[in-house]
Amino acid sequence: VCNPGVLEVICRTVLENGFSLLAIQEVGSKDVLEKICCELNHGNLRRVREWGGPKGEWRWQVSEEPAGYMFQADDFPVQNMTVNQ
């Protein structure tokens, strides 16, 4: 997400819709996730900074091993996952 306008749209969409969990498939770089979380947590872009509602506390996590392709989803069960609110 090198384009600030795209980052702003992603973050505002997350905030305006009240998402508490966001899953992104086929991320090319962990830096992208870090940048999105940093913007959601600190709001440096104007439209994100102006958001008056709750922002939450955002963290990112990736699997160390590739999980495979979406069409193979049944081959990769999710285990030991918890969601805290």
UniProtKB/TrEMBL annotation:
It comes from the Eukaryota. InterPro entries: Endo/Exo/Phosphatase_dom_1 (IPR051675). This is Uncharacterized protein. It comes from Halocaridina rubra. The lineage of its organism: Eukaryota, Metazoa, Ecdysozoa, Arthropoda, Crustacea.
